[in-house]
Amino acid sequence: MAWTERADPPRQAAIALGSNLGDCRATLEGALVELDASPGIRLLRRSAWYRSAPVGPPQPDYLNGCAVLEVLLSPEALLDRLLETETRFGRVRAERWGPRTLDLDLILLSDLRLDGERLQLPHPRMRERAFVLVPLAEIAPDWIDPLTGLNVAALARQLPDDGGLERLALQS
């Protein structure tokens, strides 16, 4: 669906990106380019990249960030597109919370609330994770979490600490 052929008003989606295998920065940048080129998706804003300690088994540190997309896709179709993108960048699901070339999580989709088997919105663990809330607060501080009624900036301030995040300088 081309942007000039909109049938419905678009929604905004917040996604979290992460990588800790291979050339992480190139993978994350490439994923954003690929998503922006996908029919029905347009990249609106993206955060800086942040280095963070892993959650789960011993593994390398992650590079994380967030992006806001404008989408003309259903929640399930957007999830499918994110999973397809992970696969194209070499994602293999071998172990829960294990290392990965690319992780794309749908965090928020406008003010939508879903509690399905495949997809929960807002993302059920977003409020616990500095590596999601800090970069998301950088680009969408006023986005309201439909479950708590708090904006993303307030949720980030409620975190007990920043999770050891290190904001990385932009490359020229």
What are the SSEs and their pairings?
Blueprint: E1 11-19, H1 24-37, E2 41-46, E3 50-52, E4 62-71, H2 75-88, E5 103-109, E6 114-115, E7 120-121, H3 130-139, H4 152-158, E8 166-167
Antiparallel strand pairs: 1-4, 1-5, 2-4, 3-4, 3-8, 6-7
Helix pairs in contact: 3-4
Structure explained in plain terms:
The chain is of the alpha+beta class and 172 residues long. Helices cover 26% and strands 24% of the residues. It contains 4 helices and 8 strands; from the N terminus they run βαβββαβββααβ. Strands 1, 2, 3, 4, 5 and 8 form a 6-stranded antiparallel β-sheet that branches. It has a two-stranded antiparallel ribbon with strand order 6-7. The termini are far apart. The N terminus is likely disordered.
How many angstroms separate the termini? 33 Å
Helical coverage, percent range: 25-40%
In the predicted model, the low-confidence regions spanning at least 5 consecutive residues are: 1-7
Strand content: 15-25%
Rg, alpha carbons:
15 Å
**Could you tell me the mean pLDDT?**
90
Give the count of helical stretches: 4
- Number of separate strands: 8
Determine the structural class based on helices, strands and strand pairing: alpha+beta
The topology string of helices and strands comes to EHEEEHEEEHHE
Categorize the overall geometry.
globular
Largest sheet: 6 strands, antiparallel
